[in-house]
Write the structure tokens for this entry.
Amino acid sequence: MAEKTIRVGLIGSGFIGKVHSIAYGSLANVYGHSLPKIERVRLADVTTELAQTGAARLGWQEGTGDWRDITRAPDIDLVDITTPNYAHAEIAIDAARHGKHILCEKPLAHTVELARQMYEEVRAAGVVHQVAFGYHRWPAVMFAKELIESGRIGQPIQFRLQYLIDYALNPDMPLSWRFQKEKAGWGAIGDVGSHAIDLARFLVGEVSRVSAVSRTFIKRRPLPAEGDISFGVASYQDAKPAVYGEVDVDDATSFLLEFDDGAIGTIDVNWMAGGHDNEVNFEVSGERGAIRFNWQHANEIQLYCAEDHPERLNGFRTIIIGPLHPGAVPSLTVPGLGMGFTDAFLIAVKEMVDAITAGRPASPNFLDGLRACEVIEAVQEAAKERSWVEVKRSLA
Amino acid sequence: MAEKTIRVGLIGSGFIGKVHSIAYGSLANVYGHSLPKIERVRLADVTTELAQTGAARLGWQEGTGDWRDITRAPDIDLVDITTPNYAHAEIAIDAARHGKHILCEKPLAHTVELARQMYEEVRAAGVVHQVAFGYHRWPAVMFAKELIESGRIGQPIQFRLQYLIDYALNPDMPLSWRFQKEKAGWGAIGDVGSHAIDLARFLVGEVSRVSAVSRTFIKRRPLPAEGDISFGVASYQDAKPAVYGEVDVDDATSFLLEFDDGAIGTIDVNWMAGGHDNEVNFEVSGERGAIRFNWQHANEIQLYCAEDHPERLNGFRTIIIGPLHPGAVPSLTVPGLGMGFTDAFLIAVKEMVDAITAGRPASPNFLDGLRACEVIEAVQEAAKERSWVEVKRSLA
Amino acid sequence: MAEKTIRVGLIGSGFIGKVHSIAYGSLANVYGHSLPKIERVRLADVTTELAQTGAARLGWQEGTGDWRDITRAPDIDLVDITTPNYAHAEIAIDAARHGKHILCEKPLAHTVELARQMYEEVRAAGVVHQVAFGYHRWPAVMFAKELIESGRIGQPIQFRLQYLIDYALNPDMPLSWRFQKEKAGWGAIGDVGSHAIDLARFLVGEVSRVSAVSRTFIKRRPLPAEGDISFGVASYQDAKPAVYGEVDVDDATSFLLEFDDGAIGTIDVNWMAGGHDNEVNFEVSGERGAIRFNWQHANEIQLYCAEDHPERLNGFRTIIIGPLHPGAVPSLTVPGLGMGFTDAFLIAVKEMVDAITAGRPASPNFLDGLRACEVIEAVQEAAKERSWVEVKRSLA
Amino acid sequence: MAEKTIRVGLIGSGFIGKVHSIAYGSLANVYGHSLPKIERVRLADVTTELAQTGAARLGWQEGTGDWRDITRAPDIDLVDITTPNYAHAEIAIDAARHGKHILCEKPLAHTVELARQMYEEVRAAGVVHQVAFGYHRWPAVMFAKELIESGRIGQPIQFRLQYLIDYALNPDMPLSWRFQKEKAGWGAIGDVGSHAIDLARFLVGEVSRVSAVSRTFIKRRPLPAEGDISFGVASYQDAKPAVYGEVDVDDATSFLLEFDDGAIGTIDVNWMAGGHDNEVNFEVSGERGAIRFNWQHANEIQLYCAEDHPERLNGFRTIIIGPLHPGAVPSLTVPGLGMGFTDAFLIAVKEMVDAITAGRPASPNFLDGLRACEVIEAVQEAAKERSWVEVKRSLA
């Protein structure tokens, strides 16, 4: 075993920082104690007070108002970045230069250039790096990948994915960093679209070129009363500030994809999709079958194989994910019991720990993060220029 | 009542001609006898023998090998065209010039130019004309339209539709006219895509421009042993001819849409979508809600209205179509009993008869058919040119 | 061909009489003209005026206020009975004694004794007889039966069925004959429960004994303003009469079944099941698999066969009913297009015509109707006596 | 805060002991550190070796071969019992007598008499007690309860529940204690049926009387090679022992319920229900609406309220459970992310800790456990005697 203890520093104590904290704290309980010990050493946030409160709340030994107390600290092995997008790069690069392993939220950065730098730095530093594409290692998705790889649906020909969520439907939702290009880089296409693109690449392959259309339907939103507001569900409902700011990112983007291997695809992302609470659904149509998935029924895969049965006896079958499927958490001892969002992050953290322990690359990693950003940027450019755009793959 | 009897001539005795025949024959039984009497006078097919056999089989008084015996016959009021695409225009134009009302299968023609001529002719002739877009007047769709019109979901912002079917998945499926550009005009984008485009226009509005990607995955198919073969399910399974021909139309096309009113959209059509037996699903996302539909559960509409309930009590609700909804057939006396494909054509024929009786235009009519062809052609051009293409609307 | 023309007389012009009329009128159109010609000769209702209006409305040559003008008429071959339950027996017996074939609505009679007499009479008369159990010959159900017979799920072990509908949920629904024991025999257990029992018998086998619980939740309902009111959806909504009558039949009944062959079962019927528009769902669990069906998605069968795939690849598969499945109507030329309620009656009438033509018994017939009544009666007795009751099978 | 630290002893290290261990270990991580500290002090199993291995594997400080080292230990506050059913009572009674709080797996005991004694002892001892009915506090179920309590569906009239699972479908599944009356008390009706009964009581109210039918379809199963085998998925697949033993508990049981308040119900349990991986579905029909739930889509509730909308706009709506609903785990920060089985036990342990901290009774507690056993026993007697059986409620 490469390391007996992995000492973690977390940067950011918002809603997703909370979920990461839970994952670190629960890892050994869920996966057993042969894993290295995870020590939640230090949490950083924008002020010392926020950090200390967050540390106490989320189970970290101490808090700091300066994230360099994490990226440069000798008592930290792994840096976990859950800040708004614009802060990822500086932190990650500093961490890499100080030899830290890094788990970074998605999208990897808010510009392609920064994402490229981040990847170059972690590669040069030889550290383990992962992007928190939580759907990538989700057991049903891993199983879909396995089914495709094993040829059960033949060569993929068409990929269709929709990522629909409605947290931005309410026009009173305040203008958080998510609605500002300067801070987020992109809107829905970056926020939920990065997941979508990662799934496309994972399941079908590299994206050659894209064509896109984007819209910002709500062009002005109320400024938050003070500071930044993460996308809490309840917080904005009482806030009726008089001052409005401009939204300069997309609310909805749809795009076409051509994959290197000849398949085509469509992705729709929309964070104003009324009635949808985080619906991620996709289908891979292949030459001999198809696979469907919908996060709303996240423990099921639907599989159709044209050759499995005579036509009159054939149809999509619903396979319920259980302990026989790849990556299921150990608490899922019986098929049909179901996993949830908490488990998704456990699985991601487990991969990080396994990669560090084995001294191997993690997956999905910063190269995947970079590739997603490159596609996002191509999509944005395609929407702006009203033309097909080749995805520029750097560092290939 | 404008006419006591409507004397019909049918051209084409294939699978869809059969469905039309059934609709004419059943109309009075289903809708009652206050309707004009429908007389199934004459059926035309490519040979006299085929036509006579078809007439006997499908309940027509006589058969003819020359469709002009219908378009020009004094004892015919309504010409119904169910031939392959390439034959629509000549027949329809001849019929219009002889003052016949016309019900024509989709797509209206196999070129935009012919579709335009057809519309000009019927307009000039003052006859009633309809395109057999069977989903357009389907009660659940009509209800969706009503819900949108009444503002229940606010202004539409994004439209997503998939028309997935797998009859062409089998590479042994013979090279019927549907796979030949010269005869069909287009592939999946014309065959099932014309329905998709009509639904987009009906529910959201006119399409301004499109970007598209198309693929022909199976580039060669066995030539049918003799003559043309409509897309029977069983017919091709035994046929293993040695001679192959080239497929020069699309198997799958995905495209982006911009609507005149600012909404965006995505349509995927694929006739090699394994596991899908005629799945047409769509969603209209609006500023205050959404509507979903799936032909596989064709008697249901799913509706979400953001303002209907507090968030914790809200969600898509499944409304089961019944006699209280628009256009339900009279035999649907109790909600939940369900309508099927047979009913869809009854509804179309009923509209034709009502329009003729009232001396009003039918809906959807040749202008809708022309508009669909214009969008199809723009999609094809966009796919070929790899660029956004403005939809050219003639005769606006 | 035994008979060139089948001359039909219909008794009852209510909502289900309308559906039967449509089926007769459409039969040749749908199934082709090799079938005997169906002549809709005469319709009877309680008054001459009602009958004549109904005849004109529903496509019958003439109307009569005396049903004996049908059961005893030399120009009638087939008597179709769609009256309230209490009138079935007298009419059917008279029809049988005059040599008429009979299609009778369900339940066969409103007492077991009458059902038994009816069966004895048709058997003695040698006429063809059918009970209008519309789900029995529904293609998805016929396919389920075929799958069970062929051993695909092994020996059936447990049957579970729910027939849920909510037309009686509204306490303002008037006290039609359906709510009166004297006229209907039974409540929900007779009305929708007769279908449920027929399905149980068809799919699993004869019922040995039952235990049951029944409730009448709405004990008094407003009397209809005048005459009898069939269960129209809209009719009662304006009616607010001051006078109430007593409901003496069940609103909901649940019962346990033991089958002759060792399987067990549960059936729930409830006509106050809020939110359900005619939901009939069942599952047959067998020793090696299971079959599920739900009328709300009536063109699908869900099949699980334990041996078909390794466990991690297995699951229920959804088979979409199409032309390859038993009993599909000829207008269903492509799988996935869907059939509806109109088709269900076409199929029933087709069976009647085929049986008459071939001189063979129809299925389901009066013996099935009698058996259903025997089970209904056992259920009612079991509920009343709070004890298991052996199903008495007469004429076995 | 009543206690700063809760010191736990776990008895049993099988698959469910593992899930409990995970819950204790993750509690603070998920719910935050204002909770009392949970110390996983000691684990007992049937041998010292098993216990020590289990302790190391599941995160307990030490292991013991004698459970009295837990029930009687001064350093233990809370005893968690996850043994086979037959061992619950002796352990729980000993724990109560030594003043320990107790969390016990379901069913509470393998006889009603022992369950009653257990309840008497915990009541006398004044300790906090809970039965691990994991569905009871599941957020969607808690929400269903809230909806019913608030009158949204009116007075419940009919309850229908199915608990279907197929782990016993394979006849090679060894004869573990679950298949032996002496050790388990009951079969499917005790194992999964205890959950079903608890849900019925929780949602609708006390059960007055029952009628039932039971079957043992596989009457002999192979003896496990050595010792007892918990119901692992993979373990039995290679074991093909030559020696068989008799199964003397039920594989499937269906029963009718009368509730004190006049509602009726049906419950089907079957652990040979092919294709079902732990499906628990129920519906409560009320006088003005209905609520549906299915564990396979465990983060959804379907709600129908007759008065919410005009009939043509009404239908079941699917409410996705999120942070606004009762009992959601804190990691579910955004609606639609989903919870799973791991979360269910966290919620149960959280209730235990809250009750201990507040010095209040837990829910569901041993009285609920006793009541469930009383109903189970009544069901078994009803099945055996073929008669309705009054549920005897002791200690009321």
Remarks:
- Residues 366-385 of chain D form the longest helix (20 residues).
- Residues 228-239 of chain D have pLDDT under 50 and may be disordered.
- DSSP finds eleven helices and 17 strands in chain D.
- The two ends of chain D are 32 Å apart (CA to CA).
